[in-house]
Design goal:
Length: 71
C-alpha cells in the first residue's frame, strides 16, 4: 500500500468541497490546516509520520460534515 502524501490529502479535501461532498466551511478550514501542516513538516517542526496523521485526521473531520443546503 502506497503511503499518502500531504498534497494528495489536501487535494482530496478540495475535491470533496468542490463536489459538495463536504461542508465548505469545514473543508476550507481543513485545507488551511493541511497547508500549515505541510509548512510545519517542511520546517522540521513536525515529523513526516505525524504530518500524515494530522492531515488524515483533518480530512476525516471535514468529511464528517455534509454541506448545508444551497441558498
Amino acid at each position: 500500500m502506497q503511503r499518502d502524501r500531504l498534497p494528495a490529502i489536501r487535494e482530496r479535501v478540495r475535491f470533496a468541497w468542490s463536489t459538495r461532498r463536504a461542508c465548505g466551511l469545514f473543508a476550507v478550514a481543513a485545507g488551511i490546516r493541511i497547508d500549515r501542516i505541510i509548512e510545519d513538516e517542511a520546517a522540521g517542526r513536525v515529523t513526516p509520520h505525524d504530518a500524515i496523521r494530522m492531515a488524515a485526521e483533518a480530512e476525516a473531520a471535514a468529511l464528517c460534515f455534509a454541506p448545508l443546503a444551497l441558498r
